Amino acid sequence: MVFADFLRGRRRDLLSAQDLEALEAAVADVRNLPPRKTFISRDQNITTSTYLLEGVMCRYMDDRQGERQLVAVHVAGDFVDLHGYPLGHLDHDLATLTACRVALVPHVALDHLVATRPALTKLLWFSTLLDAAMHREWIFRLGRLDAIARVSHFFCETEARLRAIGRSDGSHFTLPMTQADLGEACGITSVHMNRMLRDLKDRNLLAMRRHDVEIRDRKGLERLGEFDPAYLFLEEQN
C-alpha cells in the first residue's frame, strides 16, 4: 500500500476505503532517487506532487554565498511538495539527503480527487496546514532558542514524527543525516553541531553514533528544547 504512512496517527481513519483506493489509484509513477541530488529546483514548473515512501528529503534555500539553510526535513509518509499543487512551482529547492523512493501524483489526478472526494480533500488540506504549523515552529526555534535548545528541539520533533510512523521506539531511531545537514537545519556550523552533540551526550540526554540516535532522557531533552508536540497534531503518544 503506497500511502500506508500518510498522516498515520493524525485521523487518517476519517477516510473511507474508497477514498484510500482513489488516492492509491492516483499514483502515476514510483521512482527511486539517488542521494544528495536536487529533485525539484526553485521556480521550476511542476505538474505532479511527490509523496515520500522511503528515505529522507529536505527543502532548502541558498544565500548569495551559496550557504545552504534547510527549511524542512521530510521522512516517509510526507507529501514533500503538496503546496506546489495550487502554486504551480516551489519557492525553494527540494533535494534528497539519502537514497529515496517516491510516488508521483499528477496534479490533474489531484484535481479529480478534490472535485469528487471531500473527505480526502480535507485530509490533503490538513497536510498542508500541518506543514505550515511545522514551519512556524522552525521559525520559533531558529529565532528564539540558543544552539543547544535548537538541536534538542530538532531531535525531539524528529523522534515524535518517526514514532508516529513506527520508526522510533521512543528512545532509539535511525537518522541518516550528517552533522553538516543537522547544522543547516539548526542554523549552526557543523563544528558547532559537533560541540552540541558532545554537550548533549555529557548531559546524558542524547547520544548519536553515526546515524543511530539514542534519546537517554526524553523529558529532559524536551525541557531543554522547549518542545511541545501539540503543533504536530499527533494522536496521544506515550
Automatic annotation (TrEMBL):
GO terms for biological process: regulation of DNA-templated transcription. Residues 145-219 form the HTH crp-type domain. GO terms for molecular function: DNA binding. Keywords: DNA-binding, Transcription, Transcription regulation. The keyword Transmembrane does not apply. Coiled coil: none annotated. This is Crp/Fnr family transcriptional regulator.
